[in-house]
Amino acid sequence: MSQPVQYITNDKGEKTGVVLQLSDYEQLMEDLHDLAMIAERKDEKSISHEVFLKELREDGILQD
What we know:
The structure is a single chain. By secondary structure, the protein is of the alpha+beta class. The protein contains two helices and two strands; from the N terminus they run E-E-H-H. The chain has helices at residues 22-41, 49-58; strands spanning 6-9, 15-19. Strand 1 and strand 2 form a beta hairpin. The protein is elongated. It starts with 5 loop residues before the first strand and ends in a 6-residue tail after the last helix.
């Protein structure tokens, strides 16, 4: 995190919120999205690197 985190507290001194730099918030949201994608794909069958490259070439995404 680029700056220290600031907390918002209630009258009892209990933390009720947090203030983050926008860049820190955006990074956290990107990390959360990445983790969600990993969880969503955890049961997908894996393929070899060679098969992956072959598919990319067939789809025109990768050229030799």
